Amino acid sequence: MKRLTLQLFVLVLTTFTATAAFADYIYDFTVDTSSVDLHSGYIDMQFNGSNSPGLAAASITDFTGATLGTAYPSGNNVTGTLPGTVTIDNSSGYNDYFQALIFGNSITFTLDLTSVPENSFALSFFASDQTQLLTTDPSGYATTIDVNQTGTVVTNSSSQVTAALATPSVPEPGTLLLLGSGFVALTGVRRRGRR
Q1: pLDDT surpassing 70 at residue 179
Q2: Hey, which end of the chain has fewer CB within 10 Å, N or C?
Q3: Domains of the chain
Q4: Can you say how many angstroms the Cα of residue 128 is from the centroid of all Cα atoms in its chain?
């Protein structure tokens, strides 16, 4: 009985500590580009970790709404090209995906951020002469998402960009506890049946 109690305690402890380690933040982006419809320009996405304690990544999927041109990823830490999946990790100080495009009426995509704190995702748009578009931020960012110890902080410098947090991809701790206690109960029934 003591062994079963110890196993249950370890399972509960593991469940609660593992939940934070596997959490992702998923955002659905919608960008109103009707003011620059049919104009040439660029999309710029960065994922950088200043004091990040571990490897993290930003994955961009489901990209629609523009005619895409040449992609200019920076370094080996950016894989893929739009409209497919683009993954940017924080393995170096500056991690950037820059791509030429012809704007449509709106751009949509999904962003999946791993939860390692002290990382930032930034989204920018530029005209063909590389002047900033769709932002009031002097540094050129339309939106930034900072992952910190307690979650994410979204700074939106553009009225044309919406970044909506999607349903979490990780089960609630209560769900994991229920699942774990079910496994412990099955183990107990199985052992009792052997005797």
Answers
A1: no
A2: C
A3: 22-165 (2.60.120)
A4: 28
